[in-house]
Amino acid sequence: MAIEFSTLLRQLRRNAGITQEALAERAGVGVRTIRGLETGERADPRVNTVRLLADALGLRPTEREELLAAAVRRTGHGNQPDASTGHVEPATGQPGSALHESLAEVAGQLAQVVAARWQREEEQRQVHDPYPLPVCWRPVAEELIDHWANIRRLPAGGAHGPLDLSGRLDEVVGVYRRIPSGRLVVLGRAGSGKTILTVRFVLDRLQSRAHGESVPVIFSIGSWDPTATTLRDWLAAQLTRDHPGLAAPGPGGSALAAALVESGWVLPVLDGFDEIAGGLRRPALEALNATTLPLLLTSRPAQYAAAVAETDVLTSAAAVELTDLTLDDLADYLPRSTRKSPGTDPAGTAWDPVLTALHEQPDNPACINLTTVLTTPLMITLARTIYSDTPGHDPATLLDTRRFDGPEQLEEHFLDNFVTAAYRPRPEHLPRSGPRPDVDPERARCWLGYLAVHLTRLGTPNLEWWRLGSGLRRRTRALVTALAVATAVCPTTALVLGTVGAFTGSLHNIMLQFVNAAAAGLFMGLTFGTTYWFMFAAKDTAVPPSDTRVKVFGRARKTGRSASYRLVIGLAGGVSYGFSYGFLWGMLNCVILRIGFPESLNISLKDGIFFGLVFALGAGPAFGLQALLESPLDIQSAVNPVGLLRANRRTSTILFLLWAPALGLLVDTGAWVIVHPLSALLGPIKWNLSASVQVGVTSGLCGVLSYGLAFTAYGQWVAFSRIWLPLTGRLPWPVVTFLEDAYQRGVLRQAGAVYQFRHARLQDHLARTYRELHASQHPTGPGGGAPTQ
Questions:
Q1: N or C: which end of the chain has fewer CB within 10 A?
Q2: What is the distance between the alpha carbons of residues 732 and 544, in angstroms, rounded to a whole number?
Q3: How many of the other CB atoms lie within 10 Å of CB of 215?
Q4: Which CATH class is domain 98-322?
């Protein structure tokens, strides 16, 4: 009979002839931990702690194995809390410390949000309708895994036989627990169920998660550039993107996201190693080997094998490969996915003739083709959508070798008809009778194709709403931003100047006011467009979404952004813009009034200095005030793309309502403060109530509008996704409605704060067909052309 862990630990300690206090000191753990483990009060011995105890006791390899095995037996298998690899002892703070408890509370909140998110996603993907497809796996070739002694974390001389890693989808957590290193690679060809496995792993592990254990979080690793960002920094950035509240400062001053990653509270589930750009897979694998983080990594076999051949296997990682579905799996699943056929057989379905042919004529070319294709969850799901969920489609046509003379044609057929089936008109969702809009399948295919090309160009599977404009050429982005700013500023300035002029009796000079408005719009557009070019377009980056909110009442928590830094930025920007605006406006007035060049230069310099100081005194304090009013978003505030978009819209709206009057008042106040001292230094400056109101109101409204359109994620969304891309036919006008509808139809999926295509194969297919269609409609030569971006 196996010895209980508590009894074995006490026996080994006594054999070593040391006290509990001495063992605690050698192992670097608390005395209460030793006492709790020996008395059985602590029922969750963590493998990291057990290893420390084994090292401190100087155990032989056989004794070490026995102690580790007892620890695993104590926590059990299946859906019991994981004691083997689920939690890495926090690098900052011991259990019971204020730091540990603070991070444990945040990790608990994160676990709730992650569980709710993936539960909804699994329901959206109809994984359990009628039941999950039987995803299974087998061992991989030995050259793709590390030495078993390293996987087992054994000392020199320890027995190192292979682990039994066989299992099914519902056993993935138990299989992972058998791996002492906590590092597992799951290989599988396209559509074999890797993503389904990661979702099930996260949900099952969270269901059994005990207090103090790490939280499994899925990361789409295809967007990681290991040459630019370290793994931990990238993980923290992804966490902040999906959970903006984790940008708040945590214990010790670092952001909560970074603290969770560094302290081992996050178990990375890295999905899609094969989606990393080809030239980056080797450095990515080397970067993963530079860490000891427990993780689960998924990849297609060929891409992972190529990376291993270039450098090395994933250190201390075991690996399995997903197997194909069998004909029996099809016979069980497909008939239950469709309605019964009317006829003599009450249990018969449209799939019965096809399945019968596959069983009885396995050597028939048509049956060979179809059996070859229907071996992955992806293809079975597509076939179900087209034939089981779509009335009037007979799956028997799949055996027509005149239409499909090979497996490739069948796969293309499934991918090509999936969008058509997803966007078919449904009686319960006809226009004006339900929430789902009626979208023409061909138009939807075109819009989805553009999105697929957009993602291919960016080299990422993540469809981020704040980067939809990044698919355009960089100079186009800068030009569109400048046009958006100028278009917003011109009528705003004209309205303000005309209104103020009417109240002050200055309508006789209305033409000059319109010239002023046009000049203000043109200059503001050029200024912000140029600044946007240097800050974002030239670097081919996008304005990131805000991870803060504006909190007027109550105490705003510190966000780590210095108000003094914002003050300096505002002062510098105000001086630059104000001097340029004043100088050019002075020159324009002198040209209109036909004043000589020497005097024009003197007047323009005086106006430039005056307006430079005025706008500096307005923009500097306004930027500082904005920083003081910012507070981090809650962890639960952005659990999907639409939630993050709405949060940024609210933030932008509140900033406009607060910042516009604040900036206008500050500019106006600054003008009255400096007008007299500057008049004494530079000569008389004409300034009156009418000029004060005009400058204050226009600077407040136009300054905030320009800043919002050029330098906020929501403003860029409006400029590109709500105006430019629909105007040029690349996307529909109701973009949010279209994306959410595509998600509801199963064409897109959600991964945190971003959308993704249902599968990379579908994205590649839509991108290719979009390019082919565009090339046929806009040929540039014998080989056609590429889509204009």
A1: N
A2: 23
A3: 24
A4: alpha beta
